[in-house]
Amino acid sequence: MKFMLMVHETTRPTEQPPVELFQAIGALSAQESATGALVEVGGLLPIDHGSVVSLAGGAIATTDGPFVEARELVGGYSVYDVPDLAAANQKAEVFLAAHRDTWPGWEGWVEIRPMMDGM
Asked: Was domain 2-114 assigned CATH 2.40.30.170?
């Protein structure tokens, strides 16, 4: 079953993530790709580079970023093909441990959502 993991950051101690974090994530990605569990991964540019297109009251509107509070920011995502939610939870725990170990002061959470197949 495929799961999308979206990392949300609530506290960013420095403007740019440390090189050690990218190295740790790269090593995790290589390991998970080799097992076939990691389907896709990507980081997202800062929120001020994006927009939101919404539908409310019958009207469609576009709002340029920034447009959400920092606690709602999605910084990146990954898609895993694993047997169940417990396995996806474990992938998120390893990912957060890499953040804890390489970027002191960073805080956040990972949203895990099962993906619909065949659509």
From this structure: no
